[in-house]
Amino acid sequence: MKGRIIGAALVPGLPHLLSTKVSAPWNHLREALIALEKTIADLKPEVFVIYSTQWMSVLGTSFQSQPRLKGIHVDENWHEWGDLEFDFKSEVALSEGSAQRVSQQGFPTKLIAVEEFPIDTGTIVALKFLNTRLQLPVAIVSSWVYADGEKSRQIGTAMAEAVEASGKRAFVLGISSLSQRFFSDDIAPESDHLSSPEDDECNRRILGQLETGAVMLAAQSAKAFAALMPVDMQGNALFWLAGICGDKVRGARVMAYEPIWGTGNTVTFLAGDNT
Amino acid sequence: MAQSQSQTSGSIVAGFLAPHPPHLVYGENPPQNRVKSQGGWETLRWAYEGCRDSIAALKPDVILVHSPHWTTIVGHHFACVPELKGRSVDPIFPHLFQYDFSMKVDTELARLCAEEGKKEGLNTKLMVNPRFRVDYGTIVSLHMLNPKWDIPVLPISANNSPYAGGWEKGQEQMVALGRATAKAIERSGRRAVLAASNTLSHLHFSQEPIPPEDMSKEHIQTQGQYLWDMKMIELMRRGDIAGLTAAMPQFIDEAFAEVRSGGLMWMLSAMGFPNIPAKLHGYGTVIGTGNAVMEWNLDSGRRA
């Protein structure tokens, strides 16, 4: 039986969401992630396929293939907020299949099977909300720093073929902020807001395009905005989502859009034919 | 550790440009690294042997290192845990660097640096989480300078945020951080060595040979990068610090130079922008990037 992508989402991966700090915007994002987890559970996926902008690679695209990922991560900036414990299983066969198909597209790839590999904050934060109850295996792909939007899209497309070949029901996660203009000083979490009105306007335009199902258009907008302002990995997570979801996205539900330390973040569920 | 030297004025005895490709540790095969090689990158590794001899002669109390791979967004952070232990796996080259580290941190100096930084108007923070995993840039530079790890250290983060206001704004902060570091060292009574953990030109190849230490495949990625590296090294060898700092913005733009992260400017500022020739211990490429191991020996400069 052919595997398929049963849903996708764009979610934030900043550690503020796991802190105990009181902040209405962060709380809104937390609530949206909790609601998204219920939506995902109803779809009965067998695996998460994850692209996180915070796992950066140089030697082409890397695929996590260590069977079990367990440890304690301390964020390099927000280390005073404590430890991020993680423990999840890899869907090794899907990672291997993805690497093979991406290689066939002419891109360099690497399988990573190393004990105590430093799993990125974004992946850990998102999975704390979305996978603590479900305990699904994960197939994680890196964000290749030398990949532009088009290459990121092609990598996503190749991974869609790998999902199909796997026979698995996959839920896809792009873990990324939108605008990425952090406040460089300490702020009161309850007073968090977007760094600039221009960032807010650009973020809202991207979200509007997502709501119509135009993921590729949203990715192109993010890339265009990245020439004017900091955008998380120049919107490559959106390009990757456009590639892996293909033409199956019919619309999107923006479950939350809020600032984290000045950056723009959303919990957006991308709906397909069956969702 | 010199915990009670505050009666005498401390000083910076030397500064090193100490690039951190994990390949250097991988090539050396120390017991701390779980992965082993056939060698490789000898010219750079032998260059570091010269640094080790200098450090042994200088007998410093502490080595401070500014690493671009401990990236912070809010403020300049100083490690402030008496002992940091664990395994550091390089997220970029995990197949080369899985290093069991154990380091004594000069927490008193960390507090002084944070305090002096605040006086300079900087946002400074102390990192006090004992489970913090030290980045590979910090570890590689420190290992290559002092593989015995018998000298206390002080890791300092690279604060990225000031650069949002432009290169000049970022470098202004690094100059201020350097001044603060020098004052803190003076107050501490320590004899300090500084290390700017930076590669020069910094464009990598996207693929590596099998094995990674196949030196027949190692060369600079572009001739343009090489020319820039040589120009910057020559300015340092001549002691032309004004020329060096003036050339830096264009160097960073055209060679994607890692000195953008501020370590070199921090070190030069802390040393008072010394117009003395730096000693080139060696130059070599690592997966296409350009790396120079250089030393400013202020102790011998003072004696001369």
Short description:
The complex is a heterodimer of chains A (275) and B (304). Chain A has helices spanning 24-43, 92-104, 121-130, 149-166, 197-211, 215-226, 236-245; strands at residues 4-11, 47-57, 61-64, 68-73, 84-89, 109-112, 138-144, 169-175, 251-260, 263-271. Chain A has 275 residues and is α/β, with parallel strands linked by helices.
How would you characterize the overall build of this protein?
The complex is a heterodimer of chains A (275) and B (304). Chain A has seven helices and ten strands. Chain A has helices spanning 24-43, 92-104, 121-130, 149-166, 197-211, 215-226, 236-245, and strands at residues 4-11, 47-57, 61-64, 68-73, 84-89, 109-112, 138-144, 169-175, 251-260, 263-271. Chain A is globular and about 50 Å long. The mean pLDDT of chain A is 96. With 275 residues, chain A is α/β, with parallel strands linked by helices. In chain A, a hairpin with a 2-residue loop joins strand 9 (251-260) and strand 10 (263-271). Chain A starts with a strand and ends with a strand. Chain B is 38% helix and 23% strand. Chain B has helices spanning 22-28, 42-58, 107-119, 136-145, 167-188, 223-238, 241-255, 263-270, 298-303, and strands at residues 11-17, 62-72, 76-79, 83-89, 98-104, 124-127, 153-159, 191-196, 279-286, 289-297. In chain B, helix 5 packs across helix 8. Classes of the chains: A alpha/beta (275), B alpha/beta (304). The interface between A and B is medium-sized, with 34 and 33 residues.
